[in-house]
Each structure stands twice: as C-alpha cells, then as structure tokens.
ABC transporter permease (Thalassotalea loyana), 287 residues
Amino acid sequence: MKLVFKNIATLLCASSLMMPVFTQAHERFMLPSHTQLSGDKAQSVSIISSISNDIFHPDRPFGDSDTGADVGDLKTLFDMLEHRVISPDLTLTTDTRWQAFSRLSVADIKLTKSGTYRVSLVQPDVHMTTFKKDDGTHSRRFGKHPSLPDNVTDVVRRTTMSRVETFVTLNEPSNAAVKPTGVGVELSGDTHPNDLFVGEAAQFKLLFNGKTLKTPAKVKVIKGGTRHRNERNELNIDVANDGSFSFTPQSAGFYFLAASTMENIEQPAEMDVKHYSLYLTLEVFPQ
C-alpha cells in the first residue's frame, strides 16, 4: 500500500488547511472498525474520521451532518464535504450521516451486498491565494478573489481538492467500487486494497483524473500508532514513470497513505495552480 505524496509545503498546507486556525499541515484520516466482514446477513461498520498528526489518534473532528457538536471554525469546511459510499454494484450513496464530537467524527456504514465498498469524504475545490508580504513573510487568503495587502510579491492563485478514503469488504473482495471515478488522485493497481498481508508486496498504481499519474512523486506510508513511538517512521517511496509503486509491510495493522500532485494551469485563467490530495487507510493482516 502506498501513495503518492508531492513534497511541497505550500501544497500540503493548502490541501490540509481550510481554516486559518491551523498554522501547519495536518493529516486527515478515516479509521474503520473493520475492513473485512463475512456472513449471510447485512453487516455494519463504524468509521471515525479526524484531522490529526498522530496517525489514527484523533485530534479534531472531520465531517458532520449538522447533528453533532458545535464544530466552530470547521463548519465551513464540513458544509463543503461530500459524503460518498460506492457499493459493490456501483450504487452511489451521498447521504451518509457523519456526526462530529469534540475530537472525532463518526459514521455507520451498512453493508447489504457482498463485495467491496469505497467510503469517501471529498473536499471540492477550495480557492486560496498565497503571497509574500513586503516584510518577507509568507501568507495566504481564502476565496476566489481575495483582497491582498499592498506591495505583495510571489502571488499564486490556487485551488485545492482532496479525498479521504478507506475500503471495506463483505465476504469476497470485488473490484467494481475500486475502479477510479476519474477525478483527482486515486489508487489503482494489481493488489486489492482489502487483500494485504505481512511480507507480501502490494503492487499499486496512482491515477490522476482517470489516467496514469506521470508527474514525479513520492508515496508516503505511515503505520498507525505514531503517538506510542519516538519516531513516526515515515516511508517515502518513489513512484515510477508509469505511476506504479510497491510496498511490502513488515507488520500487521492499519497503515496511512498520503498522495498529492499538482498541475499548472495555462493562462489566462482564474487560478495558476491546482492541487489534489488523497489520504487513504488500509489494513494489513498477519500471514
């Protein structure tokens, strides 16, 4: 399991920060109670989501359907988020109910058909302008046409789009819901995301807008439990020219993968750069 992570500080800040309360990049993740279930009857999975740099230890909620706690400065972001579940027969559900609590959000996903489900929280394009003030400090303003201070330099108009995802399978894994939607950065490849085992190489490929990602990029992989380690032990993997990459997990558990890319926009246009990010949770099982 791996993903692409374009190592650009401004990009991560843009994709991870919707509100000015954040001063540095924060990861986003989902953590399902189960990624594999079996049985003849319908099953359910509880999923938490959070904005936190302690991987899989929640810090701030991510997602709400106006049923949870007062999320304050995060409400604008949550109102934008699209709640999506793609079922094995490609039925798209967009009314999943996420409820925010003080440090995490929770949703229940019902699995009624055998096969693989794709659960997503998608942030559509957010407009932001970055610039350098006349005193040399870097700053940013949100909105499509923000008012900027006098004498600014290095002005770049940006949009950021991201998706936070996980996959859950009832009975045998299937491939329909894993197929790309054709929007943003997505995971593809020979390995099914719910069929990962210790010591076995996972063979993946990154797609961008439905086509092979050809931009030079890296995959960032972090095993869960960073709070209880002195080092985060991030693994950065180069992505090949055909978008492929490989990763062999050495221990069982949940893994966080981050992938990002960007494209420069031909001018004249309303923005200069578009950023796209993917945050994915996968579970690795023992042999």
Remarks:
- The chain is about 5% helix and 45% strand.
